[in-house]
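Before the break, one more example. Copy the sequence into your notebook; we will annotate it together after we see the structure.
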Amino acid sequence: MDNFFRGGTLGIVFTEGELWQHQRRFALSVLRNFGMGRNLMEQKILDEIVAFTETLSKDANEPSCDLPWRFEVCVGSIINAMLFGYRFEGDRKFDTKK
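Here is what the structure looks like once it is written out:
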């Protein structure tokens, strides 16, 4: 299914094995440089996870849910919050900023 939608198992979330280990090491070193482990960064991530789970709860009764898009908004909001100080509100404007 990943091959159909994403062109293969790519990125930190969908990879496995040695490629995953290399990407994980790189991501952790970059995140440490941005302050991972500090309360401020953890709080921003937690805020986005809470918003993500609330959105999923709202979508629970819908006939379908665009989970990859929701996940992208969550990750994008975390990155935006750390770099620019604001988050995406979950609307489709995020698509135009990608």
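The mean pLDDT is 77. The longest helix spans residues 39-59. Try to locate both features in your own notes.
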